[in-house]
Amino acid sequence: MEQEFRIGIITKAHGIKGEVKVFPTSSEEGRYDNLDKCFIKDFKGNIINLSVTSVKYFKNQVILKFDGYDKIEDVESLLQKDLFVKREDAVPLEEGEYYVADILGAKVYDTEGNYIGTFFDYTETAVQDIYIIKTDAGKEIMIPAVDEFIKEVDTQNMTMTVKLIKGML
């Protein structure tokens, strides 16, 4: 089970007072509204903890200010880095929800019980997430992450049941 989640990518500085623009990779609406702490990893894998002092929104990006980063020069080392939160700081789940990171690697079956492949990756679109299933032959199958196609997700047994339609295989 993943203990940290990527919530965005710090893309560039915003202004000269130490703010940064973040491209969100979390589809959770309002994900940043109550964000107090997060972290990045430097090129050696060391964790750099960050305390968030302000959050603003601009178009499709989030503007964050971190405690102790008060000038444009202070944030240069943060640019183009993935932004993470620990599991305990993630947005709480509601009944029937799951973190996608927790099911990566799940075995995927169709509604008839036939094995299809492994939940390999996902991508976010403006409309919905798309789950990418990799077959044993290496083929990638893209399935919209909506109730019509994702019938069951069992996080404990790491399995997923999907409804396939003509053209998906």
Can you summarize this structure?
This protein has one helix at 72-75, and strands at 4-14, 19-24, 37-41, 47-58, 61-66, 82-86, 107-110, 115-124, 129-134, 140-144, 150-154, 159-162. It has 169 residues and is mainly β.
Describe, in plain words, how this protein is organized in 3D.
By secondary structure, the chain is mostly beta strands. Helices cover 2% and strands 47% of the residues. It has one helix and twelve strands; from the N terminus they run βββββαβββββββ. The protein has one helix at residues 72-75; strands at 4-14, 19-24, 37-41, 47-58, 61-66, 82-86, 107-110, 115-124, 129-134, 140-144, 150-154, 159-162. The strands form two sheets. The protein has a six-stranded antiparallel β-sheet with strand order 3-4-5-2-1-6, with no helix packed on it. It has a six-stranded mixed β-sheet with strand order 10-9-8-7-12-11, with no helix packed on it. A hairpin with a 4-residue loop joins strand 1 (4-14) and strand 2. The longest helix is centred in the middle third of the chain and has 4 residues, at 72-75. The chain is elongated, with a radius of gyration of 19 Å. The two termini are 29 Å apart.
